[in-house]
């Protein structure tokens, strides 16, 4: 895609700090570095996000994630790792080329956090099962 910054990185039109590359996947340090070693893993073939990502491409990307994560763990004194993917603007996607964030975690005071709400009380057992059935029908 001509105007995609990640496609330009893959094509060598924009420099990046490459961490890993093969024929299908490219990984590089995120310029924002939420924490030291924050790495983005992308397919070389453009896909806007998970909704446009072919299953085969997804398999190839996720096949490499453990290898790249292991490299981060060997290279850095991390104590954990967040694996994050945002899809569409409402979910904080800012670059519309599928990418996975590998965010190393060092302490409980890292400048990164997630909020998880517990909405279990919103559903009756029947409504919960109805929701599962509605989704399963479309999968």
Automatic annotation (TrEMBL):
GO biological process, one term: nucleotide metabolic process
Signal sequence region: none
UniProt GO MF annotations: catalytic activity
InterPro entries tied to this protein: HINT (IPR039384), Histidine_triad_CS (IPR019808), Histidine_triad_HIT (IPR001310), HIT-like (IPR011146), HIT-like_sf (IPR036265)
Superkingdom to which the source organism belongs: Bacteria
CDD domains in the record: HINT_subgroup
HIT domain residues: 5-114
Residues at the active site: 99
Gene3D superfamilies listed in its UniProt record: HIT-like
Motif Histidine triad motif mapped to chain: 97-101
Record-given protein name: HIT domain-containing protein
Species whose genome carries this gene: Listeria cornellensis FSL F6-0969
